[in-house]
Design brief:
By secondary structure, this protein is α/β, with parallel strands linked by helices. Helix content is 31%, strand content 28%. The strands form 2 sheets. A 4-stranded mixed beta sheet has the order 1-4-3-2. Strands 5-8-7-6 form a 4-stranded mixed beta sheet. β7 (107-109) and β8 (115-120) form a beta hairpin.
């Protein structure tokens, strides 16, 4: 039975390609049902992929091939918590090297325009440190980074 709440993401004809990339890149992700248009519509033809059900890191999503009318913005992002530098590097590099682009503070954007926050748990812990000076040093270090460097965050936290 479908989830009661599903994230619907708008694509310009390449929802299946995006869903397939997410499924092979992120743990606990998969492509589900693919629905084809039963007739022609403004941005496609009968038989074209209309929607794709998929999950990204356990989050149920639907990719809607709605055409070029709308694009993604940083107002929505997936935040993926990583356990170590190897996982951080793998996910960041998969997104950026597949036509995406780097941004600041652990953010990057995939080739379809969706934003991702690749967030090491160590960074979240450093920013929540009850020692305000340690948290501030970690925050200041993070503000200089694109992809998060856990060793540099931990060194800044220690002072």
């Amino acid at each position: 039975m479908p989830s009661k709440n599903t994230v619907c993401l708008w694509f310009d004809g390449d929802a299946l390609e995006a869903a397939t990339f997410y499924a092979k890149t992120f743990p606990d992700s998969a492509v589900g049902k693919i629905f084809r248009a039963p007739g022609d519509y403004p941005s496609g033809k009968q038989g074209d992929v209309l929607t794709v059900e998929f999950t990204v890191a356990g989050i149920p999503c639907i990719g809607l091939n709605g055409g070029p009318a709308f694009t993604h913005s940083e107002a929505f992002s997936f935040q993926i918590a990583t356990d170590d530098q190897a996982e951080t590097d793998r996910l960041w590099n998969a997104i950026v090297q597949n036509g995406g682009q780097e941004s600041a503070c652990g953010w990057c954007k995939d080739r379809w325009g969706l934003s991702w926050q690749i967030t090491p748990r160590a960074m979240s812990a450093a920013l929540a440190d009850p020692d305000q000076a340690a948290a501030r040093r970690a925050f200041e270090a993070m503000m200089t980074m694109g992809k998060i460097d856990i060793a540099a965050i931990e060194a800044a936290r220690r002072g």
